[in-house]
Amino acid sequence: MKKILLSTALLSCFVFAKDVKVGVVLPLTGPVAAYGQDVLAGVELANKIMPKAKNGDTINLVVLDSKGDKVETSTAALRLVSKDKVVAIIGEATTPNTMQVISVAEDKKVPMIAPVASGDKLLDNKKYSSRVCFMDSFQGQKFADYAIDTLKYKTVAMVVDQANVYSLGLAKVFETQFKKRGGKVLKKLMISSNDKDFKAIISQLQSVKSDFVYMPIYHPEAALITKQARALGFNTPFSAGDGVNNKTFIELGGEAVNDFIFTDSFDYNNPSTALGKSFVDRYEKEKKTREVPAFAAMGADAYFVTVNAINNCAASLTSECINNEIHKTTKLEVVGGVISIDKSGNAKRPVIIKEIKNGKQSYKATVNP
Questions:
Q1: For the segment 85-121, what is each residue's pLDDT rounded down to a tens digit?
Q2: What is the pTM of this model?
Q3: Could you count the other beta carbons within 10 Å of the beta carbon of residue 223?
């Protein structure tokens, strides 16, 4: 009798199992494609590791390319909800474009979860939006403390992208904390995204003689500035936020970016959870390298948080339920560590300090919340 009941239960599960669509919108082409490609690699690998919900439902990814454009991002998010009928959205990669996904999510009442968009005010007064990364206030403050306490720096020159909300927000937080701790900002220079010639900027950096330079900007400009600076004999240490945490930055900068220090959200040499270790092993098997990009880990975390919410909504799988469960995430072990998400959608997780040595990312420290 027990065998018959068990078989009936399994048959019932098989018959009623269904496909569940999760949308993914990322910049897979365009100037910041490296971010989107890293995130997608993590999402797709996480889907291979956990392709089904606990009740047997298959999790299908619907992936769209935003091309790094705000209008394309908004259009893609609308299509995912209206045409593809996804129950949740993962994306985008940059803060400005994530704002477009949030607008659609809030209007259509479909949960979205941002893997790496760290702008402080991104989730203010939002109900259907969340993220798995830390906020800029956390990485900015902690790096300012690290510069003062560990690196013993007293003066800084800053390079800020005046057209980028990520850069402006992170710069403001860092500057406030650095000054609060007794440091001095000797110069703050403004650039614009897609600038190519930074000789004038470098000349001004040379004139102030600061202990280090802090550039909370994206990797294309950061690599060019560093490369051009070193070619002109400027040897002051450079540093940045998580906008430079990919292989493309190292490839673009070459030897010039050695000794570059930055904040990050994951270190493949020091995974702190069983899932993190198995993810790195699986990544190595598929990609032939253990160098898991931090944004890939964050993409995976966004996926695992979403699936955890789907599992908790098995009895009533609606976007409303999934959204509520995402915001109830408590001490969930994911790839990047143990994560909790509060009612506002913000995540609590450590920040990692790294340095580029011999063309590779090298772990320096972990700073916990």
A1: 999 999 999 989 999 999 999 999 999 999 999 888 9
A2: 0.83
A3: 22
